[in-house]
Amino acid sequence: MTRHFVASQMRTVDQVGVEERAARLSSRSIKKGAKVQGLRLAVAMMDLTSLEGRDTAGRIQSLCRKAMVPLPGSDVPHVAAVCVYPPLVSVAKRALGRSGVHVAAVATYFPSGQAQLSERLDEVRRTVAAGADEIDMVINRNAFLAGDHAQVFDEIAACKEACGKAHLKVILETGELVTYDNVRRASLIAIEAGADFIKTSTGKVTPAATLPVTLVMLETIRDHYIRTGKMVGMKPAGGIRTAKDALRYLIMVKETLGDAWLSPDWFRFGASTLLNDVLLQLEKERTGRYQSDRYLSLP
Amino acid sequence: MNIPTRELLFGDLWDYAPAPEARDHVRFEKRYGHFIDGRFVDAESWFEVIDPSNEEVLCEVGEASAKTVDKAVAAARKAQSGVWGKMPGRERAKYLYRIARIIQEKARELAILESMNGGKPIRESKSVDVPLAAAHFFYYAGWADKLRYAFAGADPRPIGVAGQIIPWNFPLLMAAWKIAPALAAGNTVVLKPAETTPLTAMKLAEIFMEAELPAGVVNLVNGFGKTGAAIVEHPDVDKIAFTGSTDVGKIIQRTLAGTRKRLTLELGGKGANIIFADAAIDQAVEGIVDGIYFNQGHVCCAGSRLLVEECVEDEVVEKLHHRIQTLRVGDPLDKNTDIGAINSRAQLEKIQELVDSGVEEGATIHQSKCALPDKGFFFRPTFFTGVSQTHRVAREEIFGPVLSVLTFRTPEEAIEKANNTAYGLSAGVWTDKGSKLFQVAGALRAGVIWGNSFNKFDPGSPFGGYKESGFGREGGWHGLLPYLEVR
């Protein structure tokens, strides 16, 4: 490991300013065709997630069917990926087959990451070997908060290496980093260390994804792209439950990073309950009426 | 200044559908004369008022002659000495509270009218102009019965009849800024709205009637500069309050020299927005945008001169270059519009003339690539780099969405350059260091200074200028003083 993090590009973040900007972007009005297009995009960008101790093979198979055909009898696209714990990767892989829906798995002793680096790397390798296309790792928050940024960087770089061809999403767990300055610094470390995506949260800590945190991360991605030409993806996860929320995130992507990032290759939503609200809204736009959610299958 | 090699693509892959604010419930007359002695009166001659976003005629408005102004002043005098001046402060306050509440009730209609007539985006009329107008009435209502405590021992008394002339950039808000403190202090008013934007003032007259404000307390006369001159020259007016251009302000001051009339002027500006290298740059860029592109740059306190520390100039300019591509220019009534219509053809021509001078004098122009509507008066968000202190675009007020970028190396140089102007209305300072912020702010010769923010307003905060930006303060406790005799 010879690369080291350089803090030269570390700009401070003003809390009041970034929250105002996020609120301003949230006041955009998205109607009619733009709404339908945005919601379909949101479905295609979704990492349909189930990360619970009680997840069983049957439960994940059912989730995979929902992922492939979110709304039977419609032309709503399939989601981007199914996100599961490592032992369920092979189940998901079989269920999804050649549908085009990726298998993402949380590795590195998610959600706390409290294990030796060797153990975390082993888990990454095993999970990739089991067929995961994407690895969602957590950063070492105790090292980060203790000020050992170089260690955080080195561990991410090691995970990236362990991933091989699998895409690496780096979870910052912004709810534990608390300040926007920390979020920006952690984003920068993850990006410089080789993250393909940076991701806000595990979903196990409150607050999870918020719009201002996402804005800080998007701006870091933008600055890195301008400086180096390398695109990095973004994944807010946790707490995004409504179609309206999803559109607000898309507006933020559109107006911060532009059209190139409006694609499942570069933007994902980590969510479980969001899908059905989006489907409900899409059906409302199609029929002009709200239907009861009992017509929608559980994810 | 180099423009980035890597572009971000702000295209139409996912375009927002039009989201126009419904205007069907907005009601206004085909013709407005003047509002004198508690009722609308006919005019002798009329002129047309248009919607600057499509150049369609909205209504006709009367032009007040000196004779009409005389009637208005007489009504104001009668109301002042007969009713309003004698009324206890707590009673005056009730009317002001009532006016504030009715403004809130009619907020949506007022916002739409303000955008139709003035060209400003509906998002701004809804979130800034109308709520702040109501807030000013609420705020000064609170002072009306406390003047003896605010000016303890000074026996505060009303001055009499105030003649007020307001500009077209914030029509309703400027009317509120002028009328609320005058009334709270026990004066009566003759006010002239700007000739391009009288509609919300006429609505305000309807609100005064609904609030049962005694006849003659506020009189509104429409017209051009000639009407304004008739107010200024009227012998029975005790005080003039003017907001507008420095040129007209100077004429007014010359006219009033040697008379007993009091005067406050709120004039032009060329505000410096100072960005230090240690600032939160992304938020500072938002502040630059708020500072110069808010209300199409038709803001006297706009941050129209960007002073950026040389070592971060490239970074700031690059970010600004990308940011202005996402500003949506177009229909003022669309909820997603960021920049609406320029208020008039004359103003559009003035902006173009100054922008041409910037190019001729050798500055580098940067504009957003957005499409402009076919009809109406629109101008792309613009900024100049490579600007020096001698350029016209660095010295003259453009009053449009046009920013001049200059650089500095040390805090001393920033202060020196910021103060190197005939104006002194506003300034902004962006730094993460609190001590530096206060030190620089203390050395700036400007009436309003924002720290890590720009164009924030509150009725409790006094507003006004140094040097050729005028004198007198509006807002806050200070805003009462120009309307009171104190011993």
Concise overview:
The complex is a heterodimer of chains A (299) and B (487). Chain A has helices at residues 15-26, 32-44, 57-68, 89-96, 117-129, 141-145, 149-163, 174-177, 180-192, 211-228, 243-256, 274-287; strands spanning 46-49, 81-84, 102-106, 134-138, 167-171, 197-199, 233-235, 269-271.
Topology, please?
The complex is a heterodimer of chains A (299) and B (487).
Chain A: H1 15-26, H2 32-44, E1 46-49, H3 57-68, E2 81-84, H4 89-96, E3 102-106, H5 117-129, E4 134-138, H6 141-145, H7 149-163, E5 167-171, H8 174-177, H9 180-192, E6 197-199, H10 211-228, E7 233-235, H11 243-256, E8 269-271, H12 274-287
Parallel strand pairs in A: 1-2, 1-8, 2-3, 3-4, 4-5, 5-6, 6-7
Helix pairs in contact in A: 1-10, 2-11, 2-12, 3-4, 5-7, 7-9, 9-10, 10-11
Chain B: E1 31-32, E2 34-36, E3 39-41, E4 45-51, E5 56-63, H1 66-84, H2 89-105, H3 107-118, H4 122-143, H5 147-150, E6 157-158, E7 161-165, H6 171-184, E8 188-192, H7 199-210, E9 218-220, H8 225-233, E10 239-243, H9 246-256, E11 262-266, E12 272-275, H10 281-293, E13 305-309, H11 313-325, H12 345-360, E14 364-367, E15 382-385, H13 392-395, E16 402-408, H14 411-419, E17 426-430, H15 434-443, E18 448-451, E19 470-471, E20 484-485
Parallel strand pairs in B: 1-5, 7-8, 7-10, 8-9, 10-11, 12-13, 12-17, 13-16, 15-16, 17-18
Antiparallel strand pairs in B: 2-3, 4-5, 6-20, 11-19, 14-15
Helix pairs in contact in B: 1-8, 2-4, 3-4, 4-6, 10-11
